[in-house]
Amino acid sequence: MSTGHDSAAAPPEAMHTRYGPLFRWLFARFFGPVRFPAEAEDRLAELARKGTLIYVMRSAGILNFLYFNWAFARRGLPLAKAVLGLGTFLYRPLNLAAQRSSSRSVDAVVQAARAGHASMIFLRRPLLLRSKGASVADAFEKLVALQRETDRPIYLVPQLLIFKRAPSRLRPGVTDVVLGSAEVPGRIHAFTSFLFNYKRSFVKVGLPIDLSQLVQDNPNRPDAIVARLARGALSVGLERELHSVVGPKIKSQQRLIEETMRDRLLRAELAKEAEEKRRRPEAVEQEALRALREISARVSPAWIDGANTVARWVFNRIYDGIEVDEEGLQVAAEASKRAPLVICPTHRSHIDYILISHVLVERGITPPLVAAGANLSFWPLGPMFRRMGAFFIRRSFKGDRVYSAALSAYVRKLARDGYTQEFYPEGGRTRTGRILQPKYGLVSIEVDAWIAGARDDLCFVPVAIDYAKVVEARAYAAELAGGEKRREDLRGLLKAPAVLRSRWGRVHVQIDRPLFLSEFAASRGFDPANHTEEERKDLVFALAHRIAYGMGRVQTITASALVAAAALASPERSVSAHELRGRIEILRRLATAKGSRFSLPLQASGKRAARHAPKEDARETTTAREAGADEELLDETATSQARKAIREAMEGFIEDGQVERRLLDGGPRYRVKRGARPTLDFYKNNIAHHFEEESILAAALWALGGQASWEALIERAQWLSRLLKRELSFQPHVSIEETVRATAERLRAHGLLELDEGGVKSAPAGDEPLGFLQGLIGDVVEAYHVAALALDELEDGSLDRRHLIECCFDHGKEALGAGRIRFEEALSKPTFERALGWLLDAGLILTDGERRLALAGEMQSRAARIAFADEIASFLRRD
Question: What angle do CA 278, 280, 285 make, to 5 degrees?
Answer without folding.
Answer: 120
